């Protein structure tokens, strides 16, 4: 198991005798431990470095209050800074879905949990916001993926667009748009094709669909266990297609959640939801303080 940051720091400060104010040396010693803790939590190196620098500026010279140990005080400063970086703009978990029918484009690599997340979010919109949702799969190369969305739709009681063999993704998107308008849907969600790697064809396809439906939200689904890779994927998708928010999946796993910090620090995109399992209810809005707690251990 990981040693928690609080444990590490209490060890460090036991060896330090100075009291009164946090000296530069105290802070430096403590921050070495913070950096290791961040790296162990899978935060990327440049992000960990910048983060530590920001904390150092805040901590140096701060008066040590009587009620807490210097170690606890540094942990508090680190915790507050984590929350500051993790918190994005807007209500966590809110989606722009005014002006019905509102298109939501779901993008991400194959296996990231995109189809599952599409169905989870559709269910949530239906149950919590009483929205009529239509889902459509654009993954024409993988009939099994289209079938999977239809099955999940039945399971959660959300309509899916009928599958018409031989259609191009753009045609499906157009048909979804038309049906969403004519059928009086509030939201339509497009589950775009995923591939194992980002390639030109994938991006061109997603961009063409984006231009047809003009999504209110483009949600990137990334596997939260993939750390730095998740951040690279996000930068690329955002640069080429434009992303309005991120869903981190597999946050039920053993990972310490460092990808969330790197994601926010590098892309600046709000993390809107986290996936917490395979079941259709296993999704919740992103809570910065929960992730901060996990990173600190
Ligand atoms: P896609 O290829 O991106 O559409 O990925 P899928 O939606 O088919 O998901 C791939 C696998 O990951 C499936 O077995 C899902 O049940 C699983 N999965 C998706 N989201 C989560 C999550 O948040 N936690 C866990 N543990 N598994 C997930």
TrEMBL record:
Residues reported to bind GTP: 108-115, 191-195, 249-252
Recorded topology in the membrane: Peripheral membrane protein
Ranges annotated as spanning the membrane: none
Keyword Lyase: no
Chief localisation class: membrane
Keywords: Cytoplasm, GTP-binding, Hydrolase, Nucleotide-binding, Ribonucleoprotein, RNA-binding, Signal recognition particle
Reaction catalysis annotation: GTP + H2O = GDP + phosphate + H(+)
SRP54-type proteins GTP-binding domain span: 270-283
Enzyme Commission no: 3.6.5.4
Compartment(s) of residence: Cell inner membrane; Cytoplasm
Role, per record: Involved in targeting and insertion of nascent membrane proteins into the cytoplasmic membrane. Binds to the hydrophobic signal sequence of the ribosome-nascent chain (RNC) as it emerges from the ribosomes. The SRP-RNC complex is then targeted to the cytoplasmic membrane where it interacts with the SRP receptor FtsY. Interaction with FtsY leads to the transfer of the RNC complex to the Sec translocase for insertion into the membrane, the hydrolysis of GTP by both Ffh and FtsY, and the dissociation of the SRP-FtsY complex into the individual components.
UniProt subunit comment: Part of the signal recognition particle protein translocation system, which is composed of SRP and FtsY. SRP is a ribonucleoprotein composed of Ffh and a 4.5S RNA molecule.
Entry domain remark: Composed of three domains: the N-terminal N domain, which is responsible for interactions with the ribosome, the central G domain, which binds GTP, and the C-terminal M domain, which binds the RNA and the signal sequence of the RNC.
Similarity field: Belongs to the GTP-binding SRP family. SRP54 subfamily.
Name by which UniProt lists this protein: Signal recognition particle protein
Source organism phylogeny: Bacteria, Pseudomonadati, Pseudomonadota, Alphaproteobacteria, Rhodobacterales
Gene name as annotated: ffh
């Amino acid at each position: 198991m990981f040693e928690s940051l609080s444990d590490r720091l209490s060890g460090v400060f036991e060896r330090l005798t100075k009291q009164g104010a946090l000296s530069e040396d105290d802070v430096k010693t403590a921050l070495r431990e913070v950096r290791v803790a961040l790296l162990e939590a899978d935060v990327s190196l440049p992000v960990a470095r910048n983060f530590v620098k920001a904390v150092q500026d805040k901590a140096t010279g701060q008066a040590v209050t009587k009620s807490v140990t210097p170690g606890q005080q540094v942990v508090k400063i680190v915790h507050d800074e984590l929350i500051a970086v993790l918190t994005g703009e807007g209500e966590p978990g809110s989606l722009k879905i005014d002006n019905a029918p509102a298109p939501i484009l779901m993008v991400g690599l194959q296996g990231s949990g995109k189809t599952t997340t599409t169905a989870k979010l559709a269910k949530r919109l239906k149950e919590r916001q009483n929205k009529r949702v239509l889902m459509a799969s654009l993954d024409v190369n993988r009939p099994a993926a289209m079938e999977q969305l239809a099955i999940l739709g039945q399971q959660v009681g959300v309509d899916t667009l009928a599958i018409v063999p031989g259609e191009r993704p753009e045609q499906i998107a157009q048909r979804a748009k038309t049906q969403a308008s004519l059928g009086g849907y509030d939201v339509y969600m497009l589950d775009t094709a995923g591939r194992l790697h980002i390639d030109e064809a994938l991006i061109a396809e997603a961009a063409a669909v984006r231009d047809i439906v003009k999504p209110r939200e483009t949600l990137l689904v990334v596997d939260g266990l993939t750390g730095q890779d998740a951040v690279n994927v996000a930068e690329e998708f955002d640069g080429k297609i434009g992303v309005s928010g991120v869903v981190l999946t597999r946050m039920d796993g053993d990972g310490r959640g460092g990808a969330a910090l790197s994601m926010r620090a590098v892309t600046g995109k709000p993390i809107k939801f986290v996936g917490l399992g395979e079941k259709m209810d296993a999704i919740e809005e992103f809570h910065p303080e929960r992730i901060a707690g996990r990173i600190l251990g």
